[in-house]
Amino acid sequence: MRESLSGAEQDYTRGPIDRALVLLAIPMVLEMAMESVFVIADIYFVSSLGPEAVAAVGLTEAVLTLLYAVAVGLGMATTAMISRRVGEGRIAEANLAAGQALWIGAALAIAVGVAGYHGADWLLRAMGAEADVIEGGVGYTAIIFGGSGTIVFLFLINAIFRGAGDPMIAMRALWLANGINLVLDPILIFGWGPIEAMGVEGAAIATTIGRGAGVVYQLWCLFSIGGRLRPGPGDLKIAPPVLLRLLRLSAGGIAQFLIHTASWVILVRIIALSGSIAVAGYTIAIRIIDFTIMPAWGLGNAASTLVGQNLGAGSPDRAERSAWRAVRVNLWFLSTVGIVFVFFAEGLVGIFTDDPAVLRYGADALRIIALGYPVYAVGMIMVQSFNGAGDTDTPTKINFFVYWVFQIPLAWILAQHFGQGPYGAFYAILAAEGLLAVVGSAIFRRGHWRHKEV
What we know:
Layout: H1 2-6, H2 17-46, H3 51-88, H4 91-118, H5 120-126, H6 131-146, H7 148-164, H8 167-190, H9 200-225, H10 240-272, H11 276-312, H12 316-343, H13 345-349, H14 356-370, H15 373-388, H16 393-417, H17 422-446
Helix pairs in contact: 2-8, 2-9, 2-11, 3-4, 3-6, 3-7, 3-10, 3-11, 4-6, 4-7, 4-10, 5-6, 6-9, 7-8, 7-9, 8-9, 10-16, 11-12, 11-14, 11-15, 12-14, 12-15, 14-17, 15-17, 16-17
């Protein structure tokens, strides 16, 4: 534990796999735990403003997951390329890849920020928001999207650190961002002293300021104090071959996560047909779920780095053993959490709302989705392991089949034709994640990812 949190440079291609996994996983799990605090802090404070405010946050976050998909997809490609170069001992090329990734992130941040800020009203309408939700939530949506560059760079630069094997820096950036957000949230939402209450818009401002502070810290670490990587001015000059290679690799990762997250947007749209109360309950349940899924995803990030670095070091067998070891650890963790959620769903959702209808929808959603936690544990590690190997095409195809061919039609049929309403979406999530685990594991065992060039 001490060695992992010290930030000391490690060689993850030698020695016991369990040791390497723990050294990487501890800061990565803590990093993603902090990302999950972002997810749950806003909803905790905003829930006191009423179901309409919660629905506005939920609908905004549903659309924002599309940006997360692009940022995570780009981050996956960046981690894969950098971890492979570090495993090969080609640090100068890893620095150059990091510099090119920053340019891609800047272009993405500008495009999304401008479009999202000016199109906030349209986004909420497109998601089926009721009139009172739009009226009270359009400011929140505009601010969150206007500051979306902080989301892009927070994901992207942390991906650089993870690929380099410097997860401690990534963890500290999220801790700083969350600390600021937790302090500012109640001050800006409810007012304090001379600061007037801003309501749900205050939550957006607090989150954006917190994330912005985290990005400033990341840049300072990357260019000033350095770690295993330290890009110089020459690495920030556009290098077309590396830039295009990174874009090609990113295309698979972005498509993969867009397919996944776009399906969640459609699920929210299906749930919205049942009204704002159903959306509010689902939003609370998903925030609680994300609070535990994010740390589990951190373990997946550790598996991704180990797979990439060991492939770069010419050790594909060690890379595969690392993935399966991560599956076993994740299986124990999420199975335990799932049991807690099933038996204590009402109490957990009740922390965020005292509205009986919202509580009922939220508790039912939490309980149904948590039943699938053991299979989620397997699926997410499989996906991350493919990505760590640079094989972003395979999980893209799997996601398309699982989420678009299977999950969305199933949710619609259950909701509309069998009269299940929002419960149709809840059961479809459970079924789809189980299918992902089965298909992902079967294809991973074939081993084609071992030969992927990055």
